[in-house]
Amino acid sequence: MTNVLMVLSAASHWTLADGTQHPTGVWAEEFLEPHRIFTEAGWKIQLASPGGSAPTFDPTSLSEAGAGSAERVHEFEQRISALDSVLQHPLRLDAVNIGDYDVIFYPGGHAPMEDLAVDEDSGQLIVEAVKSNTTLGVLCHAPAALLAAHDRSNGEWVLKGRKMTGFANSEEHIGGLADKAKWLVETRLVDLGADYSQAAEPFAPYVVVDGELYTGQNPASSVAVAERIVADKS
């Protein structure tokens, strides 16, 4: 059986450049759709988060504007409710053994920019995944977590030169938060040496695969990146 670890941010806000706290959390679609696809594939899923804290879901992702329709919001809320007992008790990131998992998957939302981007346990998990050639899936704003993946022996970023995508600066501008942010995912990835690319149109599905690194650009890429991982691992 394929074992998947889904790493969730524990942040409920994102601190903006002026110090204000923007409500956020895990983007519902980016967790629920890959979780559904992995479950339908017969894979075993475990959740983990910083401190083993239960995640918050971004309120916008559970609105009609974020989910696409009232029906979709209702569906997401039902699915979250059905998973409540699991969501309330994630593993602590510092207790994770990389050898127990075939796939590590990070859903997005702005929340990873608050905690996972600077979380040493998450960063070390990613380093170990890269070094062991474990499949690593990272979606939307979750590439922020990749920023913490520095090799402790030499301080180098272990993903330098790797092909990837993530939430684009243009998408952040369209969403109205780019000018309020301390930093942007695309900019930081490029500054660290990522070979970054994006879809021709903002918010279009876009997936980049580089070896065992699978990245999706935005919420619309949630299904595509999970399905690609399942197809390649089957």
From TrEMBL:
Gene Ontology terms, MF aspect: glyoxalase III activity; peptidase activity
Gene Ontology cellular component terms for the protein in this record: cytoplasm
SUPFAM superfamilies named among the record's database cross-references: Class I glutamine amidotransferase-like
Pfam families membership: DJ-1_PfpI
GO terms (BP aspect): methylglyoxal catabolic process to D-lactate via S-lactoyl-glutathione; proteolysis
Domain (DJ-1/PfpI) ranges: 29-231
InterPro entries per record: Class_I_gatase-like (IPR029062), DJ-1/PfpI (IPR002818), Prot/Nucl_acid_deglycase (IPR050325)
Domain of life where this protein originates: Bacteria
This protein's UniProt keywords: Hydrolase, Lyase, Protease, Stress response
Similarity section: Belongs to the peptidase C56 family. HSP31-like subfamily.
UniProt name for this protein: Putative intracellular protease/amidase
Classification lineage: Bacteria, Bacillati, Actinomycetota, Actinomycetes, Micrococcales
